[in-house]
Specification:
Elements: H1 2-39, H2 45-57, E1 67-68, E2 74-79, E3 84-88, E4 91-95, E5 101-106, E6 112-117, E7 120-125, E8 130-134, E9 139-144, E10 149-154, E11 158-163, E12 170-176, E13 181-187, E14 191-198, E15 203-212, E16 215-224, E17 229-237, E18 241-247, E19 250-255, E20 258-262, E21 268-273, E22 278-283, E23 290-295, E24 303-308, E25 314-320, E26 324-330, E27 333-338, E28 341-346, E29 351-356, E30 363-367, E31 370-374, E32 378-382
Length: 384
C-alpha cells in the first residue's frame, strides 16, 4: 500500500509541474500578444529590417577620420547614437565611428536640410515638397506633399511636417514612426515656425509668429496628437519665436532677443535676455540645460557661451575672445568652433582642450563617440 501511495504522490507531483509549465507558457504567450498589440504602432516591417541591417553594418572598420565627403558641397552633419550622418547638396551619407561608409543615397532635393532622432534621419526639401526618412543603412520612407514645406521635426514617436496651406496660414501634418498620417493641425493666423515634442506623452507644442501693433507676437499651442485637439495656448508679446525645444520638462521658446521658459501647461517659468548680443548657435542635447553661443557685436568678434536651466538661470559661462562659428554639446562636454579651432570644454573640470581644424569648418556635432567637425568638403573627428 505504501508503494501505491508513493506512486500516486509522484503522479500528482508530475501533473502539478506540467500544469505549472502550461501556465507559464500561456502567460508568456499572453505577454507576447499584448506586447505585439501595444507595439504595432511603433514597429513596422521597414523599421524591423532596418534595425537588423543597421546592427550588422556596425561590424567592420573604416580607414578613420578625417575623410573627404564625395560629391557636392556639404550642408549639415548630425551625430547618431554611434557614427554620424552627413548631408550634401545632392546626397545623404552615413559613416560609422571608424569612418566606414554605411550609406550613400541621392536625395534629389534643391534645398535639403535634415533632423534626426536616434539612428533615424529625416531629410526634407525646405521650400520644396518632399521628405525622405533614412536609417543608418537604407531609405525607409518618402512622401511628397501638395504644399511647400517650411520645416520638419522628428522624435521617437512622431514626424511633424510644417507646410503652407490652401485654406489657412500654415498647417502641421503628423506621422507616426510607422509612417502613417496621424493628424493635421491648421493654423489660422501667423506662421508656424517650430514644433517641439513631449516624448513622454502624445503631445506636441507649436510656435506661431504673427505681427501685432507694429511688432512681433508669438503664440505657443499645446496639441494632443492622440485626441487631435488643442489643449491650451499662450501669447508672448515682443517675441519672434525661431525655435522650440523641450528642456527638463519645460518648453523653451528661442527668440531673436530672448528665451522664454514655459511649463508643460504653458505657464511662464522665467526668461533670459541676450542683453543686446546676437544668437549665433544653440544646442539642446543636454537633458537639463540649453547651451547658447552669443556674439558681442554685429561682426561676430568675440562672445560668450552660456548654459541655462529650465528657469533661465545661468549654470556655466565661457568667455570667448574670437569669433564663434557653431556650438554643440553632449553630456558634460561643450564643443564649439572659434578662430579655426575646435574647442572642447569639460563642464565638470572647467577645462578646455583646443584642436586645430580646417579653415573651411563651419559646423560641429557632438555625440557618444566624439565630436565631428564639418567642412565644405570633408569631416573630421575628435575623441573626448
Amino acid at each position: 500500500m505504501a508503494e501505491i501511495k508513493d506512486i500516486k504522490a509522484a503522479r500528482r507531483k508530475r501533473n502539478s509541474k506540467k500544469a505549472i509549465r502550461r501556465l507559464i507558457v500561456l502567460a508568456v504567450a499572453f505577454v507576447i500578444i499584448i506586447g505585439a498589440v501595444i507595439l504595432r504602432e511603433s514597429i513596422s516591417k521597414e523599421n524591423l529590417t532596418a534595425s537588423v541591417s543597421d546592427f550588422f553594418s556596425s561590424f567592420g572598420s573604416g580607414e578613420g577620420f578625417p575623410l573627404t565627403v564625395p560629391g557636392s558641397r556639404t550642408v549639415q552633419a548630425q551625430s547618431l547614437n554611434s557614427g554620424t550622418a552627413v548631408l550634401t547638396q545632392t546626397q545623404f551619407f552615413v559613416y560609422n565611428k571608424t569612418g566606414k561608409e554605411l550609406q550613400s543615397s541621392v536625395h534629389g532635393f534643391s534645398n535639403p536640410l535634415m533632423a534626426r532622432s536616434g539612428n533615424k534621419t529625416v531629410v526634407y526639401d525646405r521650400g520644396g515638397n518632399g521628405i525622405k526618412v533614412y536609417s543608418k543603412t537604407k531609405q525607409l520612407f518618402s512622401y511628397t506633399f501638395e504644399n511647400t514645406i517650411y520645416g520638419v521635426e522628428m522624435s521617437d514617436k512622431y514626424i511633424a511636417v510644417i507646410t503652407a496651406s490652401q485654406t489657412h496660414s500654415s498647417e502641421v501634418i503628423v506621422f507616426t514612426n510607422t509612417y502613417k498620417e496621424r493628424m493635421k493641425w491648421y493654423c489660422a493666423e501667423g506662421r508656424v515656425t517650430s514644433i517641439a515634442f513631449d516624448d513622454f506623452s502624445s503631445e506636441i507644442y507649436a510656435a506661431v509668429v504673427d505681427a501685432e501693433n507694429g511688432g512681433y507676437v508669438s503664440s505657443v499651442y499645446k496639441i494632443d496628437v492622440a485626441e487631435n485637439e488643442e489643449k491650451g495656448s499662450i501669447k508672448l508679446q515682443g517675441m519672434l519665436a525661431m525655435s522650440l525645444k523641450k528642456i527638463n520638462g519645460s518648453v523653451t521658446v528661442i527668440g531673436d532677443e530672448r528665451i522664454d521658459f514655459l511649463s508643460s501647461d504653458l505657464e511662464n517659468m522665467g526668461s533670459y535676455s541676450y542683453g543686446g548680443k546676437a544668437l549665433v548657435s544653440l544646442s539642446d542635447k543636454m537633458n537639463e540645460t540649453i547651451v547658447l553661443a552669443l556674439s558681442d557685436s554685429e561682426n561676430d568678434r568675440g562672445g560668450v557661451i552660456v548654459t541655462l536651466n529650465n528657469k533661465g538661470e545661468e549654470s556655466a559661462k565661457i568667455a570667448v575672445s574670437e569669433d564663434i562659428t557653431a556650438v554643440d554639446c553632449y553630456k558634460n562636454y561643450i564643443a564649439y568652433l572659434s578662430a579655426s579651432k575646435l574647442n572642447i570644454y569639460n563642464i565638470r573640470t572647467g577645462k578646455s582642450e583646443f584642436y586645430e581644424t580646417d579653415l573651411d569648418a563651419f559646423s560641429v556635432t557632438a555625440g557618444k563617440d566624439g565630436v565631428y567637425t564639418l567642412g565644405v568638403t570633408k569631416i573630421e573627428k575628435q575623441a573626448y
